[in-house]
Amino acid sequence: MENWHYLINQIDNVTKESNILGIRISNTHDGKLFGNISDPFIAGIYETYHPVHVTYIKAMAVHGAKIKLQKEATDIFTSLITKLGFEDINNIDSALQMVYNITTPKYKSLLGTGHAPYQHGTQEERIAALNALKTAMETDVALTAVTSMVDHIYTALTTADTNQKGAISAVEIASKTLEIARKDMSDEQFGDLGLMIHEYRKDPSKATPYYDLQALRNFNQTFFQRHVNKSASKFIVERTVEATAQATFNNIGVTTLRFYIATSKTGIIGATYLEVLASETKTVFINTLGDITALHFFMVENMDAINKGEFTLEFL
């Protein structure tokens, strides 16, 4: 059975993929209610709505802080895992050769396969290779100093890895809390609208000032906030644009993202795309992404194998 459109919560629909827009809409509603708090009817609504608004604001702030901590933890881990494949393994190799010549069976048993295991493969595989090297050295007294060096590098890496995973988990928890707060906000505003329609049933236009109508009518068509899974591409929106159209791509996550336009929702990335680094914002003419007369599907690809990507897209 088709739902009567008056019973559809448009506040929920519009803010479902955009907490930035949700905060704007909530600020407007809360501020307008407070501005007319001398009216007993409005004062009653404000008393109920304001705590919901405050909870939403706080949840948004916590989420933003957790995102920042995740980025910091990811940057540290990425730096260490990169350092392992070059500076660290070179230092380990040099120290090992001070004890065992590269022609000896002992050296060959430890680093006979070269540096590749510490430079290639998944991050987990590289850490495991380092741990195996440490274990193989531990029983050799002659390698005590080298083993200590390897242990120090291994401990720093595993600590950074644990911190990054903990930060990712914290973001996921904060995201769930934020979504609950957003839904509560939209439900409460929708309920307030019902109260106002009854109170102002002779002149429903009196409810208009309490809502951000521009956002409710327009922003859901021009502003998008999304996430994309690790090592995946995702369809954002189908849009036909003018030759002079511009868009702002804001990477609010911790991964590198590539934006492109395609011929379908499942279109794969080609040679033309816009790369946006973590915490970076770029505003471009959309026609720089390809033939806008033929390519109408806006897509994003997440280059990271561990973290999901998060971004906003706004058509200007």
Strand order of the largest sheet: 1-8-3-6
Number of domains: 2
Compute the average pLDDT. Answer: 92
**Quantity of strands, as a count:** 8
Number of helices: 8
Identify low-pLDDT runs.
Answer: none
Class based on secondary structure composition and strand pairing: alpha+beta
Can you tell me the overall shape? elongated
- Strand-residue fraction? 5-15%
Tell me roughly what share of residues is in helical segments: 40-55%
**Cα separation of the termini:** 37 Å
Order of helix and strand elements from N to C terminus = HHHHHHHHEEEEEEEE
In angstroms, what is the radius of gyration? 27 Å
Largest sheet, if any?
4 strands, antiparallel
Descriptive notes:
By secondary structure, the chain is α+β, with helices and mostly antiparallel strands. The protein has two domains: 1-221, no CATH class; 229-315, Sandwich (Hypothetical Protein Tm1070, Chain: A), CATH 2.60.290. It has eight helices and eight strands. The chain has helices at 10-15, 19-35, 40-97, 105-111, 116-119, 123-137, 144-199, 213-222, and strands at 223-228, 233-238, 246-251, 257-262, 274-276, 281-285, 297-302, 309-315. The strands form two sheets. A four-stranded antiparallel sheet has the order 1-8-3-6. A four-stranded antiparallel sheet has the order 2-7-4-5, with no helix packed on it. Helix 2 packs across helix 7 and helix 6 (123-137) packs antiparallel against helix 7.
